[in-house]
Fold:
Amino acid sequence: MKKNLPYIVLAVLSIFLVFAYFQANPDPNNQAAVDIHAVDQLRNLNKSIDREALLLESERKLDFDRLTQSSARMLRQVEKQSVVRFADSELLATLQSKAANVEAFKTHLAVYRNSIRAGRQLLADENWPGDVQATALAAAFLSYVAFDDARARDTLKAHIDDAQRPEVKTADAIETFLVHADVAMRTKPRVSDLLAEIVSSETVTALTTLEEKVVAHYADLSAAASVWRSTLLAGVLLFAAMLFWMITQNLRKGRELHQLNNSLEEQVLDRTRELTRVSDHLMEVLGDTKEQNRTMQRMKDAINQAAEGIAILDEGLKIVFINDAYAQILETDADALLDRLHPDHELLTEGLRNESGDVLDVSRQSSLGADQSLELSIGRVQGEESDYVVVCRDHTERKQMETNLLQAQKLESIGQLASGIAHEINTPAQYTNDNVQFFNDAWEDLAPLLNWVKEKAEDDQALADICEDADLEYLEDEVPTALKQAGQGLQQIKSIVLAMKNFAHPGVDDKEQTNVNAAIEDTVTIAKNEWKYVADVKTDLCADIPEVPAVRSALNQVWLNMIVNASHAIADVVGDSGEKGEIRITTRALEDVVEIQISDTGSGMPEEIKARIFDPFFTTKGVGSGSGQGLAIAHNVITEQHGGSIQVDSAPGAGTTFRILLPRVVSEAQGAVVH
Amino acid sequence: MAVTSFGWSMFVCAAVLLSGCNPDLPQTVDSPNTADNMIEVVDARELSGFTVLRPRALAMDPKIELGKALFHDTRLSRDETVSCATCHVIALGGDDNRPLSVGVGGSLGERNAPTVLNAALNSTQFWDGRSPTLAAQAIEPIHNPLEMDATWPMILERLKQAPDMLSRFQAAGFDAITPDTVVAALVAYEEVLLTGDAPFDLWLLGDDDALSDKALMGLELFQNLGCVSCHQGRNLGGNMLQRLGVMADYYKDRGIEKELDLGRFEFTGREEDRYVFRVPSLRNVAETAPYFHDGSVPTLNEAVEIMGRYQLGRALSEDEVEALVAFLHSLTGKIDERLM
Structure:
């Protein structure tokens, strides 16, 4: 508020100056001139009235127009603002009575004029008597009219009074004359008085007073105005002084401000320089840090993407860092493992107890339940922290491959063995089969003889006895059957031998485009005897199954084998209860392969057995029930002969499912000619 | 360095407040004697007591047209039957040639209607001279119950509702329709109702043949007898007051048949104003029968005779009366057709 004080004072002073200006100019429109002119007009009109009245009275003028107009104008002039402002009621009354007098003046003057005209005319008339009386009368009249002679008036008066006396006889002309003289005598004083009133100085005085009033008023106004003018001048000077003072104040403040500003700028400059220095330093540090970070990042990236799993553990075997590869091995998110105890920490602790640098072979189950074979090495880190570094190599696949190789080698040697045995068996089987064939033919050859003997035996008792001793009827029934069975047995031996041969040398047999659906349906039909009492077979065969290059007979063997196994498995479960299990066969076309699934609701297999089912000569059945060849052969046919795969899924009590994949296109490795 | 807006606003306020001082009041609308501007001043025979009347060439303007329309507008009366022109017929010499005029509802007026022609040249209006201006006169018949019996609100409403009235007023130079502007329009019309080319004026202007011998004789008598003493000036009267019955008692001789008209006494109350009337103008007198304030004198001869006896104290002969009448006839002028 105090800061604004000079402005407030200046504002107030301005208002006062404006006010003073208007007071110093009280009459900007020059009303004074207007008023004075108006009063002047009034005086002129007054003079005009006086002059006109005098002129009229002197008989030199007859018409009242000018006098009337002047009087009217005068009355209107009095109503003007300029006059009203200054005139008092006395002046107004004076002027109004003047106007009234003018009217009366006109009225009486007209009558007076007429009366003296009439009198004069009568005097001039020839009928005017010549006697003394008449002459004296005439003289008196003229004298009165001309000079307002008192004696003449008295004379006239006397004559008039005389004439009115009834006894006095007056001539007509004189009588008429006296009437007019009477009128003249009555009106003349009136006219004179009125004129005297009209031209009296009273009005002039009043008007002069009025003028003086006006002049005085404006003089006063002017005087007051001049005082205000001085005040105004003083005020203006004061205003200017204040303004000057305020300007100088502001200039000074401006200078100070400027100086302060300069010093401020200098300070800012220094600070800026210092800041620049600090900033540069920081930039350097930042650069180094960046460099370090880059190196760090490189190392981190390298470690993260290493093929082996690398983990850094703290003293308590909690994971501080774990790379992607290890996380993958553990089948968990790297982030989820941070700050947690290593899942294999017990194993690691064991390993630590041994000398560091030792490699552990670990078999474990991943978090998803898959079997893994890992090689772990744990070592202590010499550094600021007491950390451990763990390196893990996933040997699962290698182990798997090793197992497979072993399996394959095993199978190969067994195959070779089997092949050798088969070959050895083949020869005796062959000539045995020939001999059975011979015996079959021979018996047929002997048939007519036996018939002849039988016929003879009807007649010949001795012969009949011999036949009966020989049990001929029995022989006739049984020998062909026995021979047939022998033949079958030998066939069986042959096919086994053949199968074993195939086993060792999987076929360069020709492959044909095969519809597996048809094959399966055929096989189901064929094996009906095996499953119809213990299970229902449900098929869900893909409608448009593409044909696959395959050795039909071999595959059929496989299907048969599987169905039979399934039936046996279900039979183990249902026993004699009369309930039935279910064998479900589905086929599906996938992109590269055709999938066949055969599942049963049988007893299922525990882990140990599942692992060995494809082994040759492995069987769970009792001696004499099966050879243990079925699945081994199946495995061979599918994988070796056709380049597909066979997997088994089973659990005790949950049944078994075989999943077979057959490639739709034969690969180079197979090399077979496809029909 | 900036002056605060506060300071500036105060300064401005003060200046505005103080600048409105010392107003001068407006002058009145009425401007007297504009009729004077309507007369030409010409060289003429100088005859004491007479002034030639020669009206200026008439230029019709919207104001005069408006005044003429309003003068003939019956909406200025209560029942819209009477206009100014009803009693002041321009074509018939400016009055209605009746002893007393008939106003709204058939009521009779109090005095004979004076002529409106050349009325602008009279110094006062009415038989008793009570109105100093035409404007003051115009208001009275409008409000008189025996004449037009109207009120301003009534008239203004009618005029405002008329579709073209406002535009006519505006064309005439008036801002709005008010009593003042209505009267001003009427006055503007009346001021140009001047008759020119009366034989007497023509004779004054130099035409020797304009007056017949009889009229000339009448003129001389007019002057010698003293008629001119009162009937003088440019209007041959209308500028002074005089008693009816100077040389003899007019009323006593007439006998009192009806209510006495005491003239000016009725509004001044002064004894000297008893029987005093405004001296009427003799211009167009031949057209404005019947005569005198009550319209009781039907013929001009009679009027002249009465005047001679009561005002001049003379018994006029028949020849003298006829000569005077001949002269009076020569005072009849013509009115511009555009004003009718």
In short: The radius of gyration of chain A is 82 Å.
